[in-house]
TrEMBL record:
This is Four-helix bundle copper-binding protein. It comes from the Bacteria. InterPro entries: Csp_YhjQ (IPR005560), YHJQ-like (IPR044543). Gene3D superfamilies: 1.20.1270.360. It comes from Sphingomonas xanthus. Coiled coil: none annotated. Pfam families: Csp.
Length: 129
């Protein structure tokens, strides 16, 4: 089962899925969980990882909220969704930059998913014009 399929089955979607938005929601869900996992791993690191933990947790929360709004097809709030997607892309970029400054495999993976998610969020925001 995929979230893309679930969104396309919504009666308001009329069997059509904005592919860019579907891709973003898919990545947002994974990014939220990867950031949460990275934050937890950072807590176990011997050196102070406070800023990385904070950005990972903030990114996770924003990704979760954006994914929830992205799956809603009833009604129309595209301007707000577009703004949230753009904000989420900036948050993902900030989290990725912080994670890239650390030499931990969990941070490397987190940065990678954040970069992918940011790109998908920007594509989805542009598709909502």
């Amino acid at each position: 089962m995929s979230i893309r399929k679930m969104i396309s089955l919504h009666p308001a979607s009329k069997d059509h899925l904005n592919q860019s938005l579907g891709n973003a929601v898919h990545h947002l869900m994974y990014c939220a969980k990867m950031c949460m996992s990275c934050a937890d791993a950072c807590m176990a690191e011997p050196k102070d990882m406070t800023q990385c933990i904070r950005l990972c947790l903030d990114c996770s929360d924003i990704c979760e909220a954006t994914a929830r709004l992205g799956t809603r097809r009833t009604g129309d709030d595209q301007p707000m969704l577009r703004e949230l997607l753009e904000l989420c892309a900036r948050m993902c970029d900030a989290c990725a930059a912080e994670c890239e400054s650390h030499d931990h495999e969990h941070c490397r993976l987190c940065a990678q998913i954040c970069r992918e998610c940011a790109a998908d969020c920007r594509n989805a925001a542009a598709s909502l014009a």
